Amino acid sequence: MGLRSAWKQMSWLYYQYLLITALYMLEPWERTVFNSLLISVAGMAVYTGYVFMPQHIMAILHY
Amino acid sequence: YHQKICLHCDKVNRKSSHICHNGGIYKRPFKESFEETPMLVAVLTYMGYGILTLFGYLRDFLREWKIEKCHNATEREEQKDFVPLYQDFENFYTRNLYMRIRDSWNRPICSVPGAKFDILERVSYDYNWTFKYTGRIVNDVINMGSYNYLGFAENSGVCADAAAEMTLKYGVGVCSTRREIGNLDKHEELEKLVAKFLGVEASMAFGMGFATNSMNIPALVGKGCLILSDELNHASLVLGARLSGATIRVFKHNNMQSLEKLLKDAIVHGQPRTHRPWKKILILVEGIYSMEGSIVHLPDIIALKKKYKAYLYLDEAHSIGALGPTGRGVVEYFGLDPRDVDIMMGTFTKSFGAAGGYIGGTKELVDYLRTHSHSAVYATSMSPPVVEQIITSMKCIMGEDGTTLGQERVQQLAENTRYFRRKLQEMGFIIYGNDDSPVVPMMLYMPAKIGAFGREMLKRNIGVVVVGFPATPIIESRARFCVSAAHTKEMLDTALNVINEVGDLLQLKYSRHRLVPLLDRPFDETTYEENED
Q1: Angstrom distance (rounded) from CA B181 to CA B385
Q2: What is the pTM of this model?
């Protein structure tokens, strides 16, 4: 039951995301293009942060 | 914020909600509000339009390189070297943004557009480039979009019977213009009735409301005259002003200081190079502006007009029948004298359930228009059943048919308006306009929400009109509700519950004001704003 309501909540949040970014009006293949671009950019940012954050934190602490 | 007097109100950069008691020329509180766009919503709206524009360029590129099939009109191969026809922003917008949500407009209706109507269901398999009818009819959709303010759009009852009788007697076509053989005795009767209704000396009726404006303003003003027109005037007024050849100057919407400044400049400096005085100065305003729901500041305009000796042209398309204790329009709403307004124009399309327009004024004006108006000389006159519908509905509103039905309808409309507006504001939507106007624009802002709102409301059996660019500024798209006297309280309650539900689903409750109950105090210097934040 908790899973059902969590799924509903996620689905509503995804709907809000579609409305705010105007992806609601685009065709499915356009949504795929935009989502993959967004996820790749966000993924690259997270990965860079994961690789470089320890070095940056050490540099700040040792300054 | 202190409460401000009406003359200082403008909707730029302030939360301008105010109640005005202006030293006697306003006999009743004038409450208008145009809440400012929340900053986050504006940024997100621009972001949404940016994403759509990028995808629009992508699709145009694919269409150009023939990777994708092109459904819209393009130039032929031989014409590719000519000046391009479809490269401007309007066409880009139509191809890439309007087409995607096109199913919210031009919905085919298959019954009379009363309080409820039937819609033919449509489905599209190629993303709104073509539609197919499934054959199913969606019944009893509550109508929140028709300009049916007094509920005279009906196919049974006194008006419909009278119109049917008139069809049997006169037929439907008139087949001539007013000046040739198309002047029926019914037209003369209608014109006398309209003059009596408005309280003017004489009036003239035309077959089409748009043509009343665009064909008569050129007959009244010409080169060497000055037209001062409101920023948000209807296309018919703008077209008529441009066709006349007069100089046009625009003042800010409902802003009396802007108008006064223009009048002063006009009187002091005269015509542009020669500095001769203007032959005529004509102020063009509307009674109710249908995109904003605002009512014109008529007492201020009449005071200015008398001071600077200008003429006033009042277009009461939406306000006739809808405002005022007996439905006589915006002049009666403010308690003013109809003889102060030089040219009173209106249409029969909205409150009377017919088609056509009228112009009322002094007898000299109307006699002049009978000979000089383009519409009288070239356009076919009004069809007899339509004339009879107007005569019957007008007599009903005036009470001359012996019943109080008209008066009840006017009061019902006022009650419905107040109730509907109050409830929507309490729910937390941003509603523009005056508290007494039956046109209720509700702000949507984001482009995807325009399409989503139209579709979700239709799924729940409510028909609404959503408006976007180019009828409104690009980020201020809205849904426009038109309250009608034909709506019962149950229908309004159903509609309000559905709007509440859809508003929660789409997160449309942008308003940051929460209204406190209205306190009817007289104006005094230490009264603070009635809203709490």
Answers
A1: 18
A2: 0.87
